[in-house]
What we know:
It comes from Micromonospora tarensis. The protein is an alpha/beta fold. Strand 13 (398-403), helix 17 and strand 14 form a beta-alpha-beta unit.
Amino acid sequence: MSGTVKAALIYPPLTDPTSGYHSLNYLDSYARAQGHRPAEIIDANIEAFHHSYTPSAYEWLRGELSRLSTDDLTGPDALMARANLLNLPEPDPERLRRSIGVLQDPTLFYDYRHYQDAVEGVISWMDALGAVGFPGQFHAGFRLHPPPMISIGSVAALTDEALLDRLNRPFQPYYEDVLIPRLAAGGHQVIGISATYQWQLPFALWIARLVRRACPDVFLIAGGTEISDVWKCASKPEYVFQVLADFDAIVVGEGESAYTEILDAVETGTLPAGHPNVRLHPKYGRQRQLPLRYERLAQVPVPDFSDLPWDLYLSPEKFVYYSPTRGCYWNKCTFCDYGLNTDGPTSPWRQDTVDNMIADVTELSKFAKFIYFSVDVLAPATILRFAERAVEQGLDFRWGAEIRLEKYWSDERCELLRRSGCVAVSVGFESANQRILDLIDKGTKPEQVRRTMTAMTKANIGVQMMGFTGFPTETREEALDSVTFLRDNPDLWTLGGLGDFMLTPGAIVAKEPERFGITNVRPVEGSDIVRMLQYDEPVTEAAQAEVAQAKANLNPGHFHRPWLGSTDTPHTFFYHDRYGTAVRGVLAHDRVRHDTDDQTQFLANGTFVDRDDEQVWEAYRRIRSDEQDGVPGELPADRHLFRRTDGLVFALNRSSRLFLDLFTAPLTLAEAQRRLWIVEPAVADRVWRTFIGQRLIRRHQLPAEPAG
């Protein structure tokens, strides 16, 4: 092809602002290798964030907040919105700029006290920004918490223009002032939107609607994991293009060759009907559905990341994603539902050659110091050969990946991985109970897992643990086996923890419910895009609450994604590179009460929520009860709610409030003790330890910033 088609590829909000994602660069690099001109790649997620604090957008935000009303909402949505407006932070663009500066600074970033303050500054800004949509819609800064009907995949909600408009309102100035004028003037023939995560979907749908109005003749396409999930999980086929109505076509599954064939077709003035992964809008007529195509990795070139806006990301280093394998070589886990094939939990297992991997990484390492192997899992023998070659050739880069904790990983092999640049791995250990592991068909044993973790840790490779409780028929004792395993081996893992089992339609558990002791398997009521199933199972609510409390105590106080403290985030890998397996202690150091703190000034890191409107306060208590570091569920009505600066809410008893109110202005612990002379020093000390550990109070003075 002559490659004359002008295309733009957009990555929409709301997702990780710390690095660019790799999906669009893989598509573009593949198309360029086939002779097409480079696409204009637009990371609308990071652009929209930075536009939000420009002078004009800030004035718009202040105006919107001054006349903010929830009168157009009814029922639970109205009560939720009013509750989330309690203690809403004032938007502070100067603090936000300082926070961004810290996150991009190669020195301050690695001082965890500066880091925490910076992240809380970003989250505070996003809380205020989100209030002009549905108050409370942004969590941890860059996770969407939309109204429930959006979350469960209601077609009526996903096609409701007023609802989508409101969710997107925080980014309205960016859309109107930057994105849409840029696209309208761009002369593009093809515009593609890629959505990787579910919380990007409402923004992708709204951008598509705006693009369709501004560029009626453009061939508009969508792809990415989330678009594939809409196609896979739609309970009726017609729902797909009811939700994705503004798109001319969608790409289901892997997209490199599909995207290229779309460009070919547009160039020749035809429809891209020949590729099995392309689904045309029904307005183009009935199509024959062919089996999905999976790419040959040898034909996929190394992605070129040079056109991403690296100066905008909230990180001090470049961090790129690289996918030399697809699918999972194990492909047996009964809980797994990933990929689009019908004969196993994930897409077919493929891996590139070690020669190609070395060539690709050699090229990528010239551009970025950190390379994350964004794969389902890497095969042990392949990793080892790759590591040997990387050491032989003297490649200087840092990397991490998801692996299985096989007995293959001896001390010597782990040491080789570390010499090749591996700083951390993440592992799905799932459970520490053998019966549950056998039900999962994991193929591992807890004692072997512990030995492999030991070998990795000895090599100074951080082990990030991923597991869950609540697998069908799991008893209280079996769930606590996993908690005990992590609690008793704190020096063998750095970050991670235990989530909750969720049943998805493609999992073997859902296909064979009787084998796993579950009954009444059913979609969530009101869902049309069925991503999750409900079922009846024997674990009691009391046991669940006890297990939840035990899990919360494993790794308290860390930030949620996309920040440091979460598994596999860029920031987590940066800290692993700097501090090795000691990273857990680094993160804990500022959450510990030190002997020198008697003369250190502390300040309350948030405010109490007023009870002026008892109905709203009760709603706030119920809404926030699932979001604190503790047991989910209802909270005692007599608790005082304290909103930490990052938006996390804690339910404190009356005596805790008496202690915490001392720190509304900077105060040393010694002076606080003197004011509470009636309280035993040992009791007060336990309170200070708790407050510091949960960052309810913070040290008032940050470390001095380096000169120059």
